Amino acid sequence: xxxxxxxxxxxxxxxxxxxxxxxxxxxxxxxxxxxxxxxxxxxxxxxxxxxxxxxxxxxxxxxxxxxxxxxxxxxxxxxxxxxxxxxxxxxxxxxxxxxxxxxxxxxxxxxxxxxxxxxxxxxxxxxxxxxxxxxxxxxxxxxxxxxxxxxxxxxxxxxxxxxxxxxxxxxxxxxxxxxxxxxxxxxxxxxxxxxxxxxxxxxxxxxxxxxxxxxxxxxxxxxxxxxxxxxxxxxxxxxxxxxxxxxxxxxxxxxxxxxxxxxxxxxxxxxxxxxxxxxxxxxxxxxx
Length: 288
Prior knowledge:
Helix content is about 10%, strand content about 40%. The protein is mainly beta. It folds into two domains: about 5-155, Sandwich (Immunoglobulin-like), CATH 2.60.40; about 170-285, no CATH class. The longest helix has 11 residues, at about 170-180.
């Protein structure tokens, strides 16, 4: 079985070489010789149409950046994926296991950093790796690191048709209860849920449609292939909620809260008491 590793890392804004605010997260998956990196940036003011993407390694006091390409920016968000099909970083003596984090730079200035270790960083010692070009009689050129990126693509957003509806949410919910499979997965048997897909978000009141581009929700849906909507009948306010499947731990809690899903409801039959499976929830806006 090939070696597998998966983890998340927060992305921070650096201004004048000082770490300031959180700007999203990166998801890293390593399987054998293939590494996939997903970038999810949000609530950041971008002055340029793109940022340059680097992996960085440490060499004593120096920080060496290996370029992977550019990430185009749109508005205040960016969701992008890179896949590298080699462990070796270019023609260097470093491989993917030596990487200490990610840099996203603009006009040669560090603007976003996702650091995988706790060692202080002196950005004055940052330098971009330069390939050692040597003459060779071998007619086959060694591919550069960027050429070894087998996929660099914006993460797709769901293509959803907007339904025309004049029904109230209460009427829609009653129809769903009568036509869909109802579940009660939580310890409290009064909380009723229905499984939905991405396209079904458009049947909710339009004030909730912004969730179609929520990076945390999209990532969870691609993993578990479903969402839930539910009702807490005894709640005085915010009776209805939207739930995203996932497991509970400290890091995931911070990420979920960052994207608007601060509450967690564990399912009653979760097999892991330390990191239970359940749903990260947010209240539904019940009116347009």
